Amino acid sequence: MTRTWEISTVTDAARARIATARVAAAHGVPPLERARLAAALSARLRQCLAKGGVWRLVLAPADGTLLIELTSSPADGERPWLISVPCPEPAAGPVGDSVADDAPVLAEALLGADEDTAVVLDRLVEQEELVAFHREELHQTNQGVLALHAELDAAGRAQREAFAAERAARREAEAARRRLTFLADASAALTASLNHEEIVRRLPELLVPEYARSLDVWLLDAEEDNGPSVPRPAAAVLAARTGRPQYAAAEPGRLPGVDDQPPSALLPGRPLLCVPLPARGATLGVLTLTPPGERWDPDDAVMLLELTRRAGGALENARRFEHNRDIAETLQRALLTELPALPGLRLAARYLPATYGLNIGGDWYDAFRQPDGSLITVIGDVTGHGLHAAVMMSQLRTALRAYAVDGGTPGELLTRLHTFLHHLQPDLYATAVIARFQPGEPELTWAAAGHPPPVLRGPDGRVRTLDAKPGAMLGIPLHQEIADHTVPLEPGSTLALYTDGLVERRAQGIDPGIQRLSAALGSFRTDELDADLDGSAERILEPMLSDSERDDDVCLLLCHLDGSPGGGLGGPFAGGLEGLPGAPAGRFGGSRLDGHLPTGS
Asked: What pTM value is reported for the model?
């Protein structure tokens, strides 16, 4: 029901305010909203009373809402003051609005209390806004903290994943480094030897037990040479035929570069990895391995394939080296001279191949008769080692013997050899010393071409170095005429011809070595040389080579004139060498080949 009040005094205003509060309470308006309504209405009524005149307050409930309208009466064009308050409950009964006529003071007090209430309400509104602001700020802070926790958790997970990936990468890198280090060390160990049996022996030492439980090396040509073959796994036979690695097991291995095969009938309970040993255009054999555990890691399998490839190369190099060495040894054995046995002149020779490398070099010696009855002794050295040096040495030896048939002095023979070598092999050089013993002449004729000087021991034990001006090396690109030199020769004298491997040391040069050789030769008595020239040569080599690394060939040729009464170049030797019967080698001379070569008679 709509209610209306005319307000012109404080009492009217108090009545209207009280009635409005009662109507609001009757319609279920909450106390706080009623207090706000009363404070707002009181403030507006005070403004109206201050303006004067008559004002009309209309209170109309409608659809759960209480409408309050305050306008001037009569209307003077001022906009009405409107306010609405929600009413959750309808009015419970009639509402009184009377105020005692004698209570203007009370009305004024009520309006003052409303004003205080309005101030309190304003403060409450400010506090509510402040609380709402802080609540919103706290909510935002909580949201930020939650977001920060989420970001920290995500960052922690990412960091843990990064650490795990780093550890895995580090383990993988360490495993790869370990494999590469092993591969490098194993390759060095395999290529360090030029003996194929030594390489085969080293393979199990390198791989068992870290990379294989067991290992078998099947060399195809070795089995052919050793008689009936032993049973081999089918995978190994297939690897030898196809040249591809094979893996035989109950389950496929799926190893890179390896073909999978059924399990072997010989070893059905163990996986087998059969890797061919490759060579240039052929397969030398097959390496058959069993895994150290249940199966191989794929990276380990790749490493094993690479190591096997390198082992095949090392075996092929060793086979080629052994083949060339055998040829060179056979050639050297065929070309080293069996020293002639002559009355009144004893000869003894030693040849020791180098202990490193191909072992066979170009060092050589020779002794033969010329048609005029003189004896030519020669020692030389062709640059380089191996089969080529041995072949060149044989050609020089043959050429020298051919030139000597036509006669000629040592210097003339060396001059011819120089021309021969320069035209035959312009990039190859040689050194040589030729000494000639002439029947009936008490002197020695000799010539040298770039070679260490001969050493001559007199019958009194004094030793001199025959260092007269020698010619240049044989084969160098210049024209030269090599001169002859002569020296008196008495019975009991001993001439030592040698190559640089006997006297030269890298740290000392050649001169100290020649002095040591002279001292060793001078330490013998003449009767010792007469009795055992071969043993004397042996006793010279022992102290001379005690500090040698034997990286070069060693050749020594001793020529000793008999010091007994009636000995020397007179007697039977003076009548010439043609037709003389040979004396036993054990008394009059001999040669010996040490190292890899057999002893000559």
From this structure: 0.53
